[in-house]
Amino acid sequence: MSAGGPPTLEALVDRLGQLPGIGRRSAERLAFWLLRASSDDALGLAEAIRAVKEDLVSCRVCGHLGESDLCAICSDPRRDAGVILVVEEIKDLVRFESAGLHQGVYHVLGGAMDPLSGVGPEHLGVDGLIRRCRDAACNLREEPVREVVLGLNPTLDGDTTALHLANQIEPFDIRVTRLARGLPSGGTLEQASVSVLADAMDDRRPLGGETP
Ligand SMILES: [Zn+2]
Predict the structure, then answer these.
(1) What are the pLDDT digits (tens) for 95-122?
(2) For residue 68, how far is its CA from the centre of ligand 1 (angstroms)?
(3) Ligand 1 centroid to 17 CA: how many Å?
(4) Angle at the Cα of 53 (from 30 to 5), degrees rounded to 5?
């Protein structure tokens, strides 16, 4: 589309072009698809976007998103509340869930420590995790935590965060493990295949006593 298109259409192309992985050409294609689509389809998309922004709330236990202050995982009585898989982002949780790799519960940190950019534990959901470890009353069915699995990205920031968490959890009688090192170093969980993730989960190792 030339820059001389109707401003309303141009505004849509601009918005679509802000999406990750969408360049100008793709944004134009999507905009024209939406123009031709039925009102139901196009407005259904708009409604889905509105709903994720306005109707989802953060789970008070784990930081995942849900439609009430307790997410679907935390409110599922079949989940083992004694095993917490710690992840950096909700997208990592979704990855583990869609592959069916974890029967316990989660804790979403909201990122990883990045000392060079000034991101410390106080900017992440670390306090909430430590509270869950210290006080069983913070957990579902007041279940004491038996194991914390550190499912962080195999990056420098992920490793820094893992060591910090392991030190914080050390005073409690809790097994701390981390995903096995089958994951490509410096990569992210997002890039790992389901089979690599499954192996990393099965072969998880205790963190205590490991030489850095
Ligand atoms: Zn939750």
Answers:
(1) 999 988 899 999 999 999 998 889 998 8
(2) 10
(3) 33
(4) 30
Cα–Cα distance between 50 and 209 in angstroms, integer?
A: 48
CA 20 – ligand 1 centroid, Å: 27
Distance 85 CA to ligand 1 centre (A): 12
CA of 60 to the centre of ligand 1 (A): 7
Tokens 């949780």 -> residue: 93
| Ligand 1 centroid distance, CA of 58 (Å) | 8
Instruction: Answer for the pair 28, 15: CB distance below 8 angstroms, yes or no.
Output: no
Residue 104 CA to ligand 1 center (angstroms) comes to 11
Report all structural domains of the chain as residue ranges with CATH numbers, in order of start: 7-54 (1.10.8.420), 73-206 (3.40.1360.10)
Q: Tokens representing 69?
A: 């202050």
CA pair distance 208, 192, nearest whole angstrom: 25
* Lowest model confidence (mean pLDDT) among 1-5, 15-19, 109-113, 121-125: 1-5
Where on the phi/psi map is residue 63: left (φ > 0), alpha (ψ -120 to 50), or beta? left
* Residues, Cβ < 5 Å to ion ligand 1: 59, 61-62, 64, 71, 74
pTM above 0.85? no
